[in-house]
What we know:
Blueprint: E1 2-3, H1 8-21, E2 31-32, H2 37-43, E3 49-52, E4 55-59, H3 64-73
Parallel strand pairs: 1-2
Antiparallel strand pairs: 3-4
Amino acid sequence: MYSRRTCGLCDxxxxxxxxxxxxxxxxxxxxxxxxxxxxxxxxxxRVPVVLVDGEEAFxxxxxxxxxxxxxxxxx
Length: 75
Protein backbone atom coordinates (compact mmCIF):
# COMPACT_ATOMS: atom_id res chain seq x y z
CA MET A 1 0.00 0.00 0.00
CA TYR A 2 1.31 3.44 -0.92
CA SER A 3 0.33 6.03 1.64
CA ARG A 4 1.28 9.17 3.52
CA ARG A 5 2.19 9.38 7.19
CA THR A 6 -0.62 11.85 7.95
CA CYS A 7 -3.57 10.66 5.90
CA GLY A 8 -6.94 9.75 7.34
CA LEU A 9 -7.92 7.72 4.26
CA CYS A 10 -4.64 5.82 4.55
CA ASP A 11 -5.37 5.07 8.21
CA UNK A 12 -8.77 3.66 7.25
CA UNK A 13 -7.33 1.59 4.39
CA UNK A 14 -4.65 0.18 6.71
CA UNK A 15 -7.35 -0.82 9.19
CA UNK A 16 -9.33 -2.57 6.43
CA UNK A 17 -6.20 -4.45 5.34
CA UNK A 18 -5.51 -5.54 8.91
CA UNK A 19 -9.12 -6.71 9.37
CA UNK A 20 -8.92 -8.80 6.20
CA UNK A 21 -5.50 -10.14 7.21
CA UNK A 22 -7.21 -11.45 10.34
CA UNK A 23 -9.38 -13.63 8.07
CA UNK A 24 -6.85 -14.50 5.35
CA UNK A 25 -3.11 -14.99 5.27
CA UNK A 26 -1.33 -12.58 2.93
CA UNK A 27 1.68 -10.33 3.04
CA UNK A 28 1.39 -6.63 3.56
CA UNK A 29 3.90 -3.83 3.06
CA UNK A 30 3.30 -0.13 3.37
CA UNK A 31 5.40 2.42 1.50
CA UNK A 32 5.20 6.02 2.61
CA UNK A 33 5.54 8.35 -0.36
CA UNK A 34 6.36 11.43 1.74
CA UNK A 35 9.57 13.03 0.53
CA UNK A 36 10.11 10.69 -2.42
CA UNK A 37 9.68 12.85 -5.50
CA UNK A 38 9.08 9.95 -7.90
CA UNK A 39 6.48 8.30 -5.66
CA UNK A 40 4.79 11.62 -4.93
CA UNK A 41 4.49 12.28 -8.68
CA UNK A 42 3.08 8.81 -9.30
CA UNK A 43 0.71 8.48 -6.33
CA UNK A 44 0.38 12.05 -4.98
CA UNK A 45 -3.29 12.78 -4.42
CA ARG A 46 -4.42 9.20 -5.11
CA VAL A 47 -3.24 7.72 -1.80
CA PRO A 48 -3.91 5.31 -0.42
CA VAL A 49 -3.15 3.08 -3.38
CA VAL A 50 -3.44 -0.63 -2.64
CA LEU A 51 -1.78 -3.18 -4.87
CA VAL A 52 -2.76 -6.85 -5.03
CA ASP A 53 -0.13 -9.13 -6.53
CA GLY A 54 1.78 -6.10 -7.74
CA GLU A 55 -1.12 -4.54 -9.62
CA GLU A 56 -3.05 -1.45 -8.55
CA ALA A 57 -6.38 -2.66 -7.25
CA PHE A 58 -7.71 0.27 -5.22
CA UNK A 59 -7.08 3.94 -4.73
CA UNK A 60 -8.47 6.36 -2.15
CA UNK A 61 -11.28 4.07 -0.87
CA UNK A 62 -11.17 0.44 0.17
CA UNK A 63 -13.74 -1.86 1.76
CA UNK A 64 -13.10 -5.23 3.35
CA UNK A 65 -15.53 -6.87 0.94
CA UNK A 66 -13.80 -5.41 -2.12
CA UNK A 67 -10.38 -6.45 -0.85
CA UNK A 68 -11.64 -9.97 -0.09
CA UNK A 69 -13.03 -10.19 -3.63
CA UNK A 70 -9.78 -8.98 -5.16
CA UNK A 71 -7.76 -11.50 -3.18
CA UNK A 72 -10.13 -14.35 -4.05
CA UNK A 73 -10.03 -13.53 -7.75
CA UNK A 74 -6.25 -13.84 -7.76
CA UNK A 75 -6.05 -17.03 -5.70
